[in-house]
Design a protein that fits this description.
Elements lengths: L7 E10 L2 E7 L6 E2 L2 E3 L6 H13 L4 E9 L10 E9 L10 E7 L12 H14 L5
Parallel strand pairs: 1-6
Antiparallel strand pairs: 1-2, 1-4, 2-3, 2-7, 5-6
């Protein structure tokens, strides 16, 4: 029997709150700041995974706005090949670090942390560019 080694499906959620966007500081390797997100469970839709992961990592109930892009570079995650579908979401309240998040804070494009992991800096740059092109600039 042939064994298949497939990429792992994940989601990332750019959560917009009144003061900016929410990033989490990871408890596990690779260490640094990241867009909230995680693995899609078997039997779960991408949208369900996005809402669940946002709640698990930030304590926020999110309303998904739209799907942004899918990122599939095999080198985007140093641990394994993960394909991430990124969503824009809105939430109210103050994020709290939960699950595998050590910290959760609000940032804008002027004060992003230096130690952003994975390809999340690229994703955030594309997010801010998209937001500014659509007239939603800060």
């Amino acid at each position: 029997m042939r064994q298949y080694k497939n990429p792992l499906p994940t989601v990332d959620i750019i959560i917009e709150v009144e003061a900016g966007i929410v990033l989490i500081k990871r408890k596990n390797e690779p260490f640094g700041w990241a867009i909230p997100g995680g693995f899609v469970d078997y039997g779960e839709s991408l949208e369900e995974a996005a809402v669940r992961e946002a709640k698990e990592e930030t304590g926020l109930n999110v309303r998904l706005i739209r799907q942004f892009h899918t990122y599939s570079d095999p080198k985007r995650d140093p641990r394994f090949h993960a394909i991430s579908t990124v969503y824009f979401a809105k939430a109210q309240g103050v994020p709290t670090a939960e699950d595998d998040a050590q910290d959760a804070e609000i940032f804008d494009h002027h004060n992003l942390p230096a130690d952003i992991v994975f390809d999340h800096r690229k994703i955030l740059e594309e997010y801010f560019k998209d937001k500014n092109q659509k007239g939603g600039g800060e």
